[in-house]
Amino acid sequence: MAGKLNASKDKLADINKQKMAASQDLEIHMNEIGVDMKRLTLIEDLARTLKEAGVSNKEMRDYTQRQQLLNKAGISLDIFVAILEEAKVLTSHDQGEGLLKMLSEYGDLTEVIKALQTKVQSLGVVILNLRSKSPATLGS
Contact at 8 Å (CB) between 96 and 84? Predict the structure, then answer.
């Protein structure tokens, strides 16, 4: 009986160690991503609301990508609302679909511009390498 009790105590001690380690890992991860329990509760409420509204994961991902583009462009929610107010002519007939398309195209154009800038830089390196070679080397 004493052996079973000691084995149970050891298992309980192991479980408590695992629980503490998991708790510490969770706390470290939450600090890394900037989440506390209050924010986590808000995120859970938001997730529940989005689920009840039938918002798909793709729609959330698309929204997040658009929001990142707005943040990168320095456009806050207040500025975005002001832009929408000024653009009522553009959005009134299609409930903002045209503006949404333009914002998506802006994001695509931003990526294309980055890719072209990288290509220009690499071509610049190639040109410098060619210029550094002597004329005699270029002919052979």
Answer: yes
Is pTM beyond 0.70 here?
no
Q: Tell me: the pLDDT tens digits for 86-128? A: 777 666 677 777 767 777 777 777 788 888 899 999 998 888 8
On whether both 35 and 94 belong to a single domain, the answer is: no
Query: Which residue's entry shows tokens 């990526």?
Result: 111
Q: Alpha carbon 4 to chain centroid distance?
A: 51
Give the residue numbers spanning the domain of 40: 1-55
Q: Both tokens of residue 85?
A: 């107010």
Q: How far apart are CA 77 and CA 49, in angstroms?
A: 20
Q: Which residue, 35, 55, 75, sits at the end of a domain?
A: 55
Query: Domains in the chain: how many in total?
Result: 2
30 close to 36: Cβ distance less than 8 angstroms: yes
